[in-house]
Amino acid sequence: MTYVFGIALLVLAGGVVVLFAMLGQLADRAGVTPSQGSGIRLLEEAHVGRVPAAWPAGLAGFGDGPLRIVLVLSTACSSCRTVAGQLADHADVADIAVAVSTADAAAGAEFVATNGLARLPHHVDEGGDWVAGEFGIAVSPAALVFRDGMLISALAFTDFTMLRSTVSPIRQRV
Fold this sequence. Notes:
The chain has 174 residues and is an alpha/beta fold. It is 41% helix and 20% strand.
């Protein structure tokens, strides 16, 4: 009987180790590491210092200004839906625009309408071509921070309030 109990305990312990290894892999692929704590990380692959060759019509002129943030959201991302819902609760969004990466323009337009993003400057980025091509970003949700039209930072995040508290001190210095 003790051998059976010992073997069952060993199998259970092995299963827990495998489960934690899988969670670690998933977190690594999502770009979030537990040690970061804040849920915000710098996107080092971003083309910082770049001024886009052209702004999409929905974002035309948005980048001009002391500090602007373009949130990159995806229709296929549950965290992006959460962030979109958080945006609806914030009144202080004058410096925020949204680029919705999507495989289908109709799905992108529906995402904008469903989540109340039409009140913000927005662009439905079919295939993610503008965000990936101009800034090298293939992660969502992401925040692209611009000063006078130039990308000065790119951050991956999961909570808009936390992002706002991270960027607000920079915004107040500008």
